Amino acid sequence: MYQLYYQPEGIWVGDIMPYGKEGQFYVYHQRDTRNPGPFGEPFGWALATTKDFVDYKDYGESLMRGTDEEADQFIYAGSVFETEAGFHAFYTGYNREFLKAGKTSQTLLHATSKDGITWEKSKEALEIPPQEGYDKRNWRDPFVLWDEEREEYLLILGARKGEDKRKQTGRLVHFTSKDLKKWEFKGDFWAPGIYTMFEMPEIFKMGDWWYLVFSEYSEGNKIHYRRSKNLYGPWEAPFDDAFDGRAYYAGRTAFDGERRVLFGWVPTRIDNDDKNAYLWGGTFVPHEVFQKEDGTLGVKPVDQMMEAFDGWKDLFNPCMKTIDTKEETLLCEDTGSIAAFKTTVKFEEGTKEFSIRFYKDEETEVSYEYRFYVEENKVVFNKCPNYPWYQCFNIGLERPIKLEADKEYEICLIIDQDISTLYINGTALNARLCDHPGNGLALTVTDGTLEAKNTKIATKINK
């Protein structure tokens, strides 16, 4: 069981529909029993609430799934928001038997609640069926917001043109409504022609910028964002348009009045093997989202999660210099299976690489590693040594980061059982660890100089 990250025993967390209010987050999510595999048993939306992302109150299934004969045999993703009348949930109902019968398998539905816990479903499906020419099997994940300028509700959802899933016809479509009941189809909201399908779209405003967040499963299988000074675009992509790597998916954000947090899940691997591909669903890991001076977004660990770590210990601050070799300094012999590690590093001009190695076995020298490639301006997760090739299927487990000599970089690494989360100057990279070779933690540098300071570790959590 995880000590920090959220995954109730015996289930795998799927897509999360978060809602924030007065310092508390409502974590609506799908619970997959994997009986016999992903999407085995039908599910609705379960609910847990949290104020600190350390302790959760579990309510079990909140928005109940329908029967095997109803449109919401499974309750797929959607969104939750509030009006003066109470909570609203717009969601996707899916019935795997409908497609076999030639009927639309994904239907947009609606429910209301006074307390956000117990829901009453609207009796009829929304008049938002798949439009002519759009794929009736891919019409899902509605997100609703109030457009103050136009004084109407805007609903966006993921769709695609045609039924060939290999074609890059994924797009967002939109509807508008004055009363949340009658909806008018407005056509494509954004159709860039670079993805096969969009999932979990969301729009929010921070400062002067609107941000469009979405997940895609054709190029990088990860969460991206775009920004614009106008709600309807045009949308521009920053240099780094993602929040994390391949092992973090289907994220939506929520704002509780103080913080905006991204809710995504870290997938598991087939047969729990580092060399295998990913499975749908896994473990919830939050990122706190912040806006940089230039209007781009970064992520960092939630402060209260870091504050939950107890017994911080100062570690040795190495200064390593090499010429055409790799030098390594062991900082901690035993991280255990839960740890938070912090350090601030800088390197000199001409340095080729530096890295963090963890879960290292001192005898076999096998470990996991986040390696920073200075000339290529990126950080990559892998196993070390990666022999016999390959020991870890790590396509997509890398992030771009501009690495400059003589500049300080604050690094935070959180380890919770079989998940590692790296943060460096607003960039994050999650990974799933299927082995636990050892418990050592080390810094390395290759062909250059690396200096560390304020190096600390904590291996206990107070709950």
Main traits of this protein?
single chain, 463 residues, mainly beta, seven-stranded antiparallel sheet, six-stranded antiparallel sheet, 34 strands, 52% strand
What does this structure look like?
It contains two helices and 34 strands. It is mainly β and 463 residues long.
Distance between the termini: 14 Å
Q: Could you give the count of β-strands?
A: 34
SS element count, helices? 2
Task: Report mean pLDDT, rounded to a whole number.
Answer: 96
| Strand proportion | over 45%
Multimerization state: single chain
Computed structural class:
mainly beta
Low-confidence stretches at least 5 residues in length (pLDDT < 50)?
Answer: none
The radius of gyration computed from the alpha-carbon positions, rounded to a whole number of angstroms, is 23 Å
Outline the biggest β-sheet: 7 strands, antiparallel
Helix content: under 10%
Name the overall outline: globular
Write a brief structural summary.
It is built from 2 helices and 34 strands. The protein has helices at 96-100, 303-308; strands at 12-21, 24-32, 45-50, 57-63, 74-83, 86-94, 106-113, 120-121, 140-147, 152-160, 170-177, 184-190, 198-206, 209-216, 222-228, 249-255, 260-269, 278-291, 297-300, 309-310, 313-314, 319-321, 326-332, 338-347, 353-360, 367-373, 378-384, 398-400, 409-416, 419-424, 427-432, 440-446, 449-458, 460-461.
